[in-house]
Design goal:
Elements (H helix, E strand, L loop, with lengths): L1 H6 L4 E5 L7 E6 L3 E8 L10 H13 L7 E6 L3 E7 L4 E2 L9 H16 L12 H13 L17 H11 L6 E4 L8 E3 L6 E4 L6 E4 L2 H10 L9 H11 L7 H11 L3
Helix pairs in contact: 3-7, 4-5, 6-7, 6-8
């Protein structure tokens, strides 16, 4: 970190405290605006805690032509990693929006999820299928890495072992694989405040081949979060209808992927 402080000493550093990645995030303002993420090696096996994984996914997704924050530099060693990106103008979908624009914000979220999921899944080198994520959940429980203070309200008071038992009992028999974001929620989608075009997908450490229910599950859960009261159950329903107009998403799989996220 000291070396980075010296390298960017001409910039003002503003810590960003929103987010749960475990990384230190700073906005650097100088001749241009940048974002710097710094993280030590994390014991959690989930790729969302790994800046090396996030860097590789960001570079790959940019090659596919989807909007991401431009990666300017990155490095890693045995102690940890850092990632430098150019700041993207715009606002997250979770920022306050006028009431008459919220439907359009939700539509933009749903449309981008569909665009992402239309990428050729066979071309994606990152595996986030159940063969990876369920063993990761088991490892997190065994290592005491599940944050029981940050589970959904309906699961409060339960142990990590109890959650794992429920997960194991509800694992789907198969998967409809797509290229998924892995943490698809309003704070991770940057929008043009005028056009509502998606300017960037961020926090890409969990991007990979995953069931198509995973991203809608987390998006709808976020839209229902009381911490962001501008969105309502009607907005969650709107997202679901816009994303899957044929109504072919399975509510049980939506619930499973919300549960699976508790172990990340």
């Amino acid at each position: 970190m000291n070396g980075l402080r010296r390298r960017f000493s001409a910039y003002t550093w503003e810590p960003i405290t929103v987010g749960r990645s475990g990384a230190g995030v700073y906005r650097l303002d100088g001749r241009e605006s940048l974002y710097l993420k710094v993280a030590e090696v994390n014991a959690h096996p989930d790729s969302g805690f790994d800046l090396v994984a996030e860097t590789a996914r960001g570079l790959w997704l940019a090659e596919q032509g989807l909007p991401v924050a431009e990666i300017l530099d990155h490095a890693a060693d045995a102690a940890g990693a850092w990632l430098l990106t150019r700041a993207v103008p715009g606002r997250t979908a979770a920022d306050p929006w006028p009431a008459d624009r919220r439907d359009a914000v939700v539509d933009a979220l749903a449309d981008m999820a569909r665009t992402l999921h239309e990428l050729p899944v066979a071309d994606c080198p990152f595996d986030r299928s159940l063969a990876v994520t369920v063993p990761n959940a088991r490892h997190a429980v065994a290592a005491g890495l599940v944050d029981l203070d940050d589970v959904d309200d309906e699961r409060r008071g339960r142990t990590a072992a109890q959650l794992l038992d429920e997960l194991t009992a509800t694992v789907p028999d198969d998967e409809d694989l797509v290229v998924g974001h892995g943490d698809y929620c309003p704070p991770n989608v940057l929008l043009d405040p005028d056009t509502l075009d998606v300017l960037a997908l961020i926090d890409l450490g969990r991007l990979g081949r995953t069931d198509r229910h995973a991203d809608p599950a987390l998006a709808m859960r976020s839209l229902l979060d009381p911490d962001n009261p501008q969105f309502t159950p009607e907005h969650a329903t709107r997202f679901l209808t816009r994303y899957a107009p044929d109504g072919d998403l399975d509510p049980k799989r939506i619930a499973f992927h919300c549960l699976l996220d508790e172990f990340c």
